[in-house]
Structures
1.
Amino acid sequence: MAIGERIHFFRIMRGMTQKYLGMLVGFPERSADVRLAQYETGSRKPKADLTAALAQALDVAPQALDIPDIDSYIGLMHTLFTLEDIYGLTVSESDGEICLKVNKGKSKDAAELLKMLCAWKEQADKLSAEEISREDYDQWRYNYPKFDATQHWAKAPSKELSDTLVEAFKDKLKTD
């Protein structure tokens, strides 16, 4: 999830308008909502000082807003927190072990993530049972979803290509 989407998520969660949050971080009243909208839509990316000010105004850590850095433990934790927000990821304990679970009832995206995780578990189980080699397992992971046989993936043409084809064949298309 991009930084603009996180700003939007926390702003809505806090019940703030774009104008109000924009003014909290120091934008002039007349342009506060427009400026904040630019960050939320991704047409502008806030610099570190603005990210810090937005985080303070939203009462979150700057890492909760920024694009996750999974190379640090704090960044990884904020990535997991984002997955909780989007996909209903929950943390629990089972047999003395910490477990992460997906709440498939949270949303369509959560149900899709659960299917993907099940496909991953299937491959991990095959590796554990020595039905596939480590090389086969890594090939599956590093090329995902190319070798995933559990779901049907389709490539959709880009909007640009689709529009070009429609334009090229518009005289042949039926319009009822």
2.
Amino acid sequence: MAIFFRPHGLRVRASAARLCALAALVLSAGCAQLGAPPYAADYEALDRLEATRPGMVAVAKVQPTDPNDSINTLHLRRAKLLSPSGTFAQYLEDALMRDLGEISAYDPKAPTRIAARILVNELDLGVINGTGRMDVEVVVTRATVQRLRKTYRGEIAFDSSYANIVAVPAGQAAYPRLVRALLRQMYADPQFIAAIAP
């Protein structure tokens, strides 16, 4: 009598494949909504900015405020990434106010004001490597005088995967890094430093 054995390794691989397929199905169904992690400051960049002795600065409402604007809508493949602040414009505004508050340079009534408009807000999960890009036009005014108008770009790269179960959480975790990369560029710019100087 012939006895047939199914190799144990094939059974494990088949179970893993079914699990990955199920996770991919859930993430690709269009109903998955994920929250972007909270912003965390880049304290090295803030220490350098604080060393320049900036003046007190107010922050205007970051644009676009419309939650349906494409800037405020991010998709990680077919999962939707949501801002804990309601919009990604508000996420950036909150980050700016928090950073300036950390170095005691934030005053909502200050005559020097930063206005920002997000022009590009993207996360691309790729197949092996993911990327993110954020372009923001920044205008600094004091009273009615424009002191700076400049577009800053933040870019990041992160490990990704063909599998949604790996790639989607990686993209979700990368968003605060993208905002930090953008703000790091801005805080290090001599023209920005000069614009917010007392």
